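Page 47, continued from p. 46.
Same chain as before, 549 aa.
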Amino acid sequence: MNNTQSTLQLARKSYQPKLPKALRGAIEVVELGKTEPATHKEELKKLFPNTYGMPILRFVESTKQKEYPAINVGIILSGGPAPGGHNVISGLYDGLKTSNKDSRLFGFILGPGGLINHEYKELTADIIDEYRNTGGFDLIGTGRTKLEKEEQFEKGLEIMKKLDIKALVIVGGDDSNTNAAILAEYYQAKQAGIQVIGCPKTIDGDLKNDIVEASFGFDTTCKIYSEIIGNIERDCNSTRKYWHFIKLMGRSASHIALECALQTQPNICIISEEVAAKNQTLDDIVTYIAKAVAERAERGLNFGTVLIPEGLIEFIPAMKSLIAELNDLLADTTEGQTAKQSEQRNWVISRLSTKNAAIFASLPESVAAQLTLDRDPHGNVCVSRIETEVLLSSMVGTKLAQWKAEGKYVGKFATQHHFLGYEGRCGFPSNYDADYCYALGCTAAQLIFAGKTGYMASVRNTVAPANEWVAGGAPLSMMLNVEHRRGKEHPVIKKALVDLEGRPFKEFASHREEWARETEYVFPGPIQYFGPSELCDKPTKTLQLEKAD
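Result:
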């Protein structure tokens, strides 16, 4: 098999992830007080009577060695891949085997669908060892099937009873861990004897709170994107003839865009949450970018970089209103969707409200088509497919042409477009994510041996050396609120958006005018796996700023 493995892959096999002191030997579980969600307390208490109000847990070192019975555990990787998933599996496997060598681990194939369809494989040492410290989810694959129906829970229970599985670990984002909370409550109410533990995964960085300080994969992904952005900036400063519009993953939150801006210092970075807070229009954003382009052009600088979060379009109030009306308009008809593109545009415009029709008519044809042709399974616009970078650059170009005709602009405006998406999801995990994920897996094992269910594995204080990290668990129920989705009220884990009062955003905001005016690019280079700790092990700038004293 070695002939299919790169030199780095072979070298990373020997890397031993660093662990907090409390996870290296015998542990004691300390309860830190009861919890409750921030909102909808009474509603959630009724929905989760068996897992509501549980305490936060912290693991501390113990001198008392305990004997644990062998246990069979299942694991599911859910949603989009994120660097470090294989180390969660490795940490879970090692944690189970260290406590009892006869414990067994089963991976369900292609996500939650594998649990429902009874597709699985036992994960043994020879299999897992090939995947330690590697990227991707290809050991067992992943999927986006949602575990939310009773018949699904029962199908899962059927296979877990057959395999004598007593605990299930679900690795995923806010939706997947919401499903974990619902599943834990269901099995607890039935006294089915199945524990459910969640692990925080999403490259978007929007699954975090006071107890879960980071979702895994965010660190690596931002470092991969920042390397590419730095390379683009270097090219930008070398040829001095293009404005590069770079869209970055982040469906709902702008954490990736903000972190990459802090790492690379681009000329412009749009933060969706700020756009919404200031009730900015599409023209406001276009004008903001165009002014920066014009001011640099006055000094002969006809080049620059613009970072754009993937979900921006839904944060612009006027666009959000347009999308909502389009969703309703196209939900129950195929008339507009089967027409030719030119005819469809006119068909849509004729049926929209006056205000939204004007906005739709102002959009480039390619973007207008994306808003009407591409729908998700629920009939909604697929925001990730909208070429926001093309939309903004096109509209900036139009505005600059107007200003040139009026004698307000003297430069040249040529553009290049980029979307940094899947390039970051399956990279080799950084040392931080390799360590963090391995610790999360070990933590999940200890939560299982402690008899806990309805918890998310939590590893905190990760800006400190790994030796000082704090491991434990946070009740999933404390993270829930109630949201209106698809016409019904649903319990969900609320996404953590960029905090406009937080230190990371304020640090960015304090420098952005200077970055727009000057050329102060930073070139982070590739992720470093070998060398001094200050080069290899540092977490994101976002986390460092959030945890700064």
